Amino acid sequence: MNVESGGGLLLPLVLVHGGAGNVPSERRELHVEGCRAAARAGYQRLSEGGSALDAVQAAVKVLEDLPQFNAGTGAALNAEGQVSHDASLMRGSDLAAGAVGALMSFRNPIEVARAVLEEGRHVLYVGPGARAFAIERGFTEVEAEALVTEEARAALAKFRADGGSGGWAGGTVGAVAVDATGQLAAGTSTGGTLGKRVGRLGDSPIIGAGTLADDSSCAVSCTGDGEAILKLGLSQVAASYLRAGESAEQAARLAVTRLQERLQGASGLILVTPQGRFAWARSTATMSFAVVGAGGEQAGI
Ligand code: GLY
């Protein structure tokens, strides 16, 4: 268990993660740099007068576009060699939420999730319904192959050669933000587990599991063992620790520890409160992160 946390950056701020896992040492800087670029892009939106939700969306889009992460372009492939994206977004002021699951041919699922949130009729669209919604909303469909990288193909080939063991790809991405008035947002995006069965959804598109934003407690984005995170509702667990009076650091640490102890689940999460207290925790070897706020920036893995 490794828990790191920080504080002292002034509002507003954006905190991002590039997934809990075990990034080889020679690739760690690439992941940190990607997180730094994403957090800066999110903070730029806040500086331009954008909302916390705008900042989260902008940050996650950067991470989706970077092939080193398991989201958007370069996402982990399913058992049939296809990209199948899950993503969600939530706003803390009114609990507005939007999510998509098993979306296969759009570069930025987080943008489709934003459109679901703005429409406000439903929270989660999956598969063909999610695709129809995205097309109706004017998103450009791309050849699914355009989202597949050589690295993702090689990872699936190794997974198959190893007999389908160890399907957790790591590298899910996410962001949380708080604006200058204390309003929160959170978002998460992933390709899910390597070699997953067609139709499998993990925690990332599920509000209260992979993503949560509630101005009465905190904004959270989770990464890790999706089945375990779903069973526990990990984001809500972290928020409940905060509501019970724990600090941001303790809430993050206790939630990740509970997943490990109760379900032997590996995970990581990032968290921010309306006051700008933030923390990250992981039970894995690595989780890249970056935070950019009015008081400066930090990044690491
Ligand atoms: N945590 C991402 C997934 O399991 O799909």
CATH superfamily: (Glycosyl)asparaginase
Each distinct ligand: glycine
The number of helices is 8
Please count the beta strands (DSSP E, at least 2 residues each).
13
Strand content: 25-35%
Strand order of the largest sheet: 5-4-3-7-6-2-12-13
Largest sheet: 8 strands, mixed
Explain what the structure shows.
The relative contact order is 0.22. This protein has an eight-stranded mixed beta sheet. The model has no long low-confidence stretch (mean pLDDT 94). Strand 10 (267-272) and strand 11 (278-282) form a beta hairpin. The chain has a single domain (13-295), classed as Glutamine Phosphoribosylpyrophosphate, subunit 1, domain 1, CATH 3.60.20.30. It is globular and about 45 Å long. The chain contains eight helices and 13 strands. With 301 residues, it is α+β, with helices and mostly antiparallel strands. The longest helix is centred in the N-terminal third of the chain and has 20 residues, at 28-47. It has helices spanning 28-47, 52-65, 109-119, 127-136, 150-161, 226-232, 234-243, 248-263, and strands spanning 2-6, 13-21, 85-91, 97-103, 124-126, 173-178, 184-190, 211-213, 219-224, 267-272, 278-282, 286-293, 296-300. The site of glycine (GLY) has 10 residues, from strand 9. The site of glycine has 10 residues, from strand 9.
Summarize the structure.
The protein is α+β, with helices and mostly antiparallel strands and 301 residues long. It contains 8 helices and 13 strands. It has an 8-stranded mixed β-sheet with strand order 5-4-3-7-6-2-12-13. Strands 1-11-10-9-8 form a 5-stranded antiparallel β-sheet.
